[in-house]
């Protein structure tokens, strides 16, 4: 039966995708958010879903049948308070996903501190490629990003495979457990386990407990494909009731990578399974971490019966994910790249990948400390280590710094001082506009500017290339062409 379903916090990556899935099921879908920005605002507009901005009680004057409460929504939100006062039925994103979409499906879940969006996208594309040979592989999926091969973050089909990005973040204000505990995987990937989300996890042990519970949901007939060069991952899979297949570069790995090499943006390697050659693989993405992500996706797909030739073809034709090393513009020879950075390890791997794929080019990192992880000083030393891989660094102030206790808050000035002590030119700027003004005159053709943020960052992705072009035309910037 068609319902009017309203999503509070609809512009979150997973919430926007869920909105599209519900509309595809025939429901009337509307929602609200404090502010909308691409790519999810574009997706919702294309779907014809009305988004109210900002939150307001009047947005619920037309009473919905059901309200889905995003995990960023807390008591005190004016819409949530009206929902509760009037007794409008509500639930979480994860619970409706399980009840409406996962029952009777084969649930394939990708989890881990890093790499899960890209790995989930690779796995979905492998299944999509395989469906050209056998329609039973046609996947449904829900991904916390937009894979460029699909141009959408979700798809719902009548076939059995349902591929999910498993988020360890909490579910809702009334359910503080991880979302992935609602997904009951038949098979799973576990990429990395590190301390993250310091706003909801007290320490690394708390993070590991969440992943142990996730692994404990996989039935005996299932499998977990797990990274092998992490003691944390080893601890999390140690008591699994199902088969565990480890992947990595170690000699004893069930899935082992060897002869890894880079040809510009293309990465090539040999993949071995249980000591026997599985395939020669290539991926049009840079970075050792992406080869590992691809290996995990290949391993899970193979174990579920996907043919080797489909895996090889899918990885060869994989086109990345929006906001993961995405080239946003090339202005006067300066390449501007967007990357959805949320953790010092992710920043390190992004910068390493750019070093490998663009040797000899000057690398400028522009960081907005916006995620709940990066806004906290517990990661300050690791952040300095990661940013030191750049040739120059520009930092914005901490996003909504007033929401982080002073004793816990990242100090950008200390980060800059740490970089200067290592000989890396660095500075803190008030906002995106100030960064554009400071950086534009110093750029030259051949430079690579990587913008690291998990938000809109004041429109810097559009402002910087425009400023470079305008300054070059006006002769105010010494852009030198190679």
UniProtKB/TrEMBL annotation:
It holds the Pfam family Mur_ligase. The keyword Cell wall biogenesis/degradation applies. Residues 110-301 form the Mur ligase central domain. The lineage of its organism: Bacteria, Pseudomonadati, Acidobacteriota, Terriglobia, Terriglobales. This is UDP-N-acetylmuramate: L-alanyl-gamma-D-glutamyl-meso-diaminopimelate ligase. It comes from Edaphobacter modestus. One of its GO terms (molecular function) is acid-amino acid ligase activity. Keywords: ATP-binding, Cell cycle, Cell division, Cell shape, Cell wall biogenesis/degradation, Ligase, Nucleotide-binding, Peptidoglycan synthesis. PANTHER family: UDP-N-ACETYLMURAMATE--L-ALANINE LIGASE-RELATED, UDP-N-ACETYLMURAMATE--L-ALANYL-GAMMA-D-GLUTAMYL-MESO-2,6-DIAMINOHEPTANDIOATE LIGASE. GO terms for biological process: cell division; cell wall organization; peptidoglycan biosynthetic process; regulation of cell shape. Residues 4-98 form the Mur ligase N-terminal catalytic domain. InterPro entries: Mpl, Mur-like_cat_sf, Mur_ligase_C, Mur_ligase_C_dom_sf, Mur_ligase_cen, Mur_ligase_N, MurCDEF_pg_biosynth. Residues 323-455 form the Mur ligase C-terminal domain.
